[in-house]
């Protein structure tokens, strides 16, 4: 398993913590809220503005990749479910 650089590990840990606190609704997972990022930075005593900006940018980039993947998977599952329902409806008409 690859080892992450200490700074990379810090950002990955932040993403994991914040991702578990994201809102999820009928449309699926929602972006991590900036207020959650600010609260995390405060909790971790990240006070330097450049460090906070880096945290925001990196977490936002990771979140975009996560959301794109989640929505692709959701769309594929919905398509599969629609095809299954269509096949089931065809079978029901034959009887």
What does this structure look like?
The protein is mainly alpha-helical and about 100 residues long. The protein has one domain. It contains three helices and two strands. It has a two-stranded antiparallel ribbon. Helix 1 crosses helix 3 and helix 2 packs across helix 3. The longest helix has about 45 residues. The mean pLDDT is about 90.
Number of helices: 3
Q: Give the amount of beta strand, in percent.
A: under 5%
Question: Averaging pLDDT over every residue, what do you get?
Answer: 91
Shape: elongated
Q: What structural keywords apply?
A:
two-stranded antiparallel ribbon; 4% strand; 95 residues; 3 helices; mainly alpha
Helices and strands in order, then pairings?
Elements: H1 6-19, E1 24-25, E2 28-29, H2 34-43, H3 49-94
Antiparallel strand pairs: 1-2
Could you write a compact summary of the structure shown?
Helices cover 74% and strands 4% of the residues.
């Amino acid at each position: 398993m690859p080892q992450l650089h200490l700074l990379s590990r810090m950002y990955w840990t932040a993403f994991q913590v914040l991702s578990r606190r994201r809102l999820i609704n009928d449309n699926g997972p929602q972006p991590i809220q900036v207020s959650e990022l600010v609260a995390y930075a405060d909790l971790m005593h990240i006070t330097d503005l450049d460090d906070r900006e880096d945290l925001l940018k990196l977490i936002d980039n990771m979140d975009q990749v996560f959301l794109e993947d989640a929505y692709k998977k959701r769309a594929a599952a919905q398509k599969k479910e629609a095809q299954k329902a269509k096949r089931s409806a065809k079978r029901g008409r034959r009887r």
